[in-house]
Structures are given as C-alpha cells and as structure tokens.
Amino acid sequence: EEKAQQLELTSRYKSEFLANMSHELRTPLNNLLILARMLSENVDGNLNDKQVKYAETIQASGQDLLTLINDILDLARIESGNMLIELTDVTFGEIVQHTERMFRHVADSKKLDFHVDVDHRCPPSIHTDAGRLQQVLKNLIGNAFKFTDQGSVVLNVAPATFGWTPGHRQLDSSSGVL
After folding, report:
1. Exposure letters 45-58 (e unless 16+ CB within 10 A, then b)
2. pLDDT attached to residue 131
3. C-alpha torsion sign, points 131, 168, 154, 119
4. Is the pTM of this model over 0.70?
5. Cα(125)–Cα(94) distance, rounded to whole angstroms?
C-alpha cells in the first residue's frame, strides 16, 4: 500500500513536471514562430528567395517542435485523466492537404514517391478529433518514411470490413469504419 502511494505520488510529480516544462518551452517557441513568420512574409522585400525559404523552414520546424511539446503535454493530461477530445467534422481534402504538407519535404529529401489515396466510397468528411487524427497519421507515416529507403510511401483511406478483433464494441456497432 505504501509503495502504491509512492508510485502515485511519483506519477503525479512527473505529470506536473511535464505540464510545467511544456508550458515553459512553448512561450519562447511561440516568439520564435512569430519572428520566423515575419521573416518569411518579407514585407520589406529585403530577403532573397533562398532566405525566405529558410525562414519558412524555420517556421515549419518550429511548428513541428511545438506539436511535439503539445504531445508531451497531452501525455501528462492523459496520465492525469484531464484529456479533452474536440470532435469536429474534418474533410478528406483537409486531411490530404495537411498530410501532403507535413511529409512532402521528407519524401523529396529521401527521393521517395509519396501520395494519399482516398477511395471514392469514403464519405466527404468524418467526425473526429482532428488533432488526435493528425497525431496518429504523423506517427504512422513518419515511421513509414523512417523505414523506407526506396520506392514509395502511400496512405490509402478506404472503407474497411475487417481488420479488427471481433467483439470490439465501438467498431462492431459503427455504421462504417475506414
């Protein structure tokens, strides 16, 4: 019982530390993102195309870092039982555009083909937590690129009729699974 209490206390301290660190890291990172955006907009026109591209890369990398920090904060929220799900309608056009934007540079740098195929039988949108969906896709596609040295990486989205363990309450009762 004493060990369980110590473990619970340790877990709480870890979650608080992660939440505090995530918050402390986001403030300077947000400043960096604002400055990178300002540079990439090149309002004064004093940067050449290459310098603007560098500023855009800094901004994109900073945004990726901010996403990772938010993921750490989410982990702390999950462990503390405070994770909020934000359900919205997300179109497949948005999913394709975001995925392409996130991974096009990776595909180009590894000289791999990359594309997202959405089956015509899919509905126009899905009701989901867009942030969590992006997290899942980022992890899956990121791993695909990590372990692919030649050829292509393809994300196929299509209606599924199998592929999960029978008896899964939510999937078995769903009107459709992708």
Report:
1. eebeeeeeeebeeb
2. 85
3. negative
4. no
5. 9
